[in-house]
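User: I want to check something. If I give you two sequences, will you return the structure for each one separately, not as a complex?

Assistant: Yes, each is folded on its own. Here is the first sequence with its structure:
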Amino acid sequence: MAIKHIVLVKFNGEASEGKIAELSKAFAELQFKIKGITAFEAGVNESPEGLNRGLTHAFVMSFVDGAARDAYLPHEQHQAFVSNLKPYLDDVLVVDYSL
């Protein structure tokens, strides 16, 4: 069964617009470096509801199945990305679901 992996992020004050663009590009490039990722989407919150709890950016990855997602999480390319991302995070929320 395919898996959607949703990452909602609030960047901290150290994250300039340029740094956010750089990190977003690096996140998107993981789909070309790690097998099992079938799609990637990203965007900035535009909801008028005010229910985002300060989370401003959404990143959505699709995986062929749960095994591909499970292999992605400890993958060295993903872990290197996470190490680069962490200093710029104020908050993050991750939700996965099956299709």
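And separately, the second sequence with its own structure:
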Amino acid sequence: MQNRLLIMGIGNYLMGDEGVGVHAAERLQQAGLPAHVDVVDGGTGGFHLLSYFEKYPRVILVDATLDGNPAGTIRLIKPRFASDFPKAMSTHDIGLKDMMSSLQLLGQIPEIHLFVVSIATIQQQGVELTPEVEAIMPGLLNKITELANTLEPEQEPAG
């Protein structure tokens, strides 16, 4: 696993835009990414996702955020500490901050790149994305794929 890259979409698929990370993961699984890249639908797995962060040296996360920006705004964050993550949304088992705090205690934080997509509200039901968020999906997938292509696997020493 030391040369692998994980792309993980986080969110609740059944709550509209809050599931944008899961939608992105599903679409990326069909995208023909480089051989060193694995894609996982992290859903609302909470602490069950910790093992992925322990196994992979580099992780690209995709999640929704209620940050007050216009719906569909995409930001790339390179968090180093739990406090660098956006605040948790109530639909997740635990938030990314909680998970990162646990990894900090274990001393096993991988290199993380976090794409956050701003959403307007948390919808209570529905698997469809709003038109604003659906409209940015091609650009989001392109940004994730471009980043994955730049994060080439580390070469093992010849020996």
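Because they were folded independently, the notes below concern the second chain alone. The chain has one domain: 5-150. The chain has a mean pLDDT of 84.
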